[in-house]
Give the backbone structure.
Amino acid sequence: MNSFEKVTALLDQHQARYRVVEHEAIGQTDRISAIRGNDLNQAAKAMVLEVTMPEGADPRYLLAIVPGDCKINFKSAARAIGGKKSSFAAPEKAQELTQCEMGAVPPFSFDDRLALRVDNRLRDVGTLWFNAGALDRSMALQVADFFRVVGDECCAEIATPMTATA
C-alpha cells in the first residue's frame, strides 16, 4: 500500500470528511497553496527531525507539522518529545521513515519510530491542506477530523511565524 492509500484508508476508517485535489507535482508550500487556493496558514508542512535526547540516549525522530506561514522552532520541537535539540533528519532517513519523497509527506506517521507533533496554530484554520503522499495530490481535511484521527496529545508549540524577528 502506498502512502496515499494509507492516508485515505486511515481517514476512511475514522469516517473523516476530506477531498482529494489533483494538481501539478509541486512540493513547495507557497506555490502549491496558490494553486489549490488555500491560505498559507492552512497548509500543513511536514518535516522530519532528528532529536538529540538527554544522557546520550539514542536520537529519536519527529514528524513536525507546522502551518505554511511558519517555520519550525527546533528547540521547542525537541522539547515536545523530551529531547534537548533537533535538526532536519538526513533525507534518506526521512524517506525511510515516511515512505514518501520530500515535499509529499502527509501529516500522519505510519512508523512507530516517528513521533508526531502538530503545532497548536493549526487547530484554528478550519480546513487543513496537505500533500497526500504524492506531489501531485493534495487533501483538504476538516481540522476537527484531523485531530480526532491523530489525537490531542500530538499538539505542541513547535513553530514560529515567519514574520517574527529572531
In short: The chain has five helices and ten strands.
